[in-house]
Specification:
The protein is mainly α. The chain has 5 helices and no strands.
């Protein structure tokens, strides 16, 4: 069975719209989390962490970078298959997903 050009064009349009939608949603979510009150490094380390420990974690997590730089770094890593490291579990996110994904099927 041969796919006509109208159907192919519709598929390309839908895929393009899906990619643009995902990009916009990721930008909005990233922006909203960036303006939340509090410091992610301070929250991860707890209230008894020293300023030096907080500063070191901020550098490690890239929180000392401007938001646009952090977003682009995250996006490039995501496209490369690197989902980052979970702060709460200290494990690669890809391992966390791989361990839980089969249970969703």
């Amino acid at each position: 069975m041969q796919m006509n050009s109208n159907t192919l064009w519709l598929i390309v349009q839908r895929l393009g719209a899906a990619i643009v939608t995902l990009l916009i949603v990721s930008i909005v979510v990233f922006a909203i989390t960036a303006v939340l009150p509090g410091d992610a490094a301070q929250q991860a380390l707890g209230q008894f962490a020293t300023p030096e420990q907080v500063a070191a974690l901020r550098i490690k997590l890239g929180l000392d970078q401007p938001g646009v730089v952090r977003y682009l770094h995250w996006l490039m890593n995501l496209l490369g298959g690197n989902f980052g490291e979970s702060v709460s579990n200290a494990m690669p996110v890809s391992e966390l997903i791989a361990g839980r994904f089969p249970k969703t099927l």
